């Protein structure tokens, strides 16, 4: 990701295009360079998926047990609750992943700011407090909330078929 230099925050890699980014990274750092930051992405997806599926089923069942609604209304309510859970659990991983992806690297492809996933979490927590891991939670929810609701709604409908 990158932005105009007038509004840029932190290091910008300044790739001209996605294919240019792949080519540049591969030439400078080899295949391993294309996987830099994966240590933040894998736990993000694992935690987010676990929170999404566990909270969806529980919330949907809870709504149905209280007879507040059934069918698609319970599915949507479960999806909304799940969207909040996903945003809360994934936000720290999004912050860490973004910082790992966007940090400048040396000639060997080693990050200049963080030694890895755990070091990034520790630095953020010590310098910015635990709430530093939740920077941008509103944007995270606006992206993941609707996605979660729609994904789970369609998943539930497909399961019925």
TrEMBL record:
Q: Does the keyword Transmembrane helix apply?
A: yes
The record's Gene3D superfamilies line, in alphabetical order, gives: Mitochondrial carrier domain (1.50.40.10)
Q: Which domain of life is it from?
A: Eukaryota
Could you list this entry's UniProt keywords, alphabetically sorted: Membrane, Mitochondrion, Mitochondrion inner membrane, Repeat, Transmembrane, Transmembrane helix, Transport
The chain's coiled-coil residues are none
> At which residues are the Solcar repeats?
1-62, 70-161
- Tell me what topology the record assigns in the membrane: Multi-pass membrane protein
A Pfam family recorded for this sequence? Mito_carr
PANTHER family, A to Z: RE38146P (PTHR45928), SOLUTE CARRIER FAMILY 25 MEMBER 34 (PTHR45928:SF3)
How is this protein named in the record?
A: Solute carrier family 25 member 34
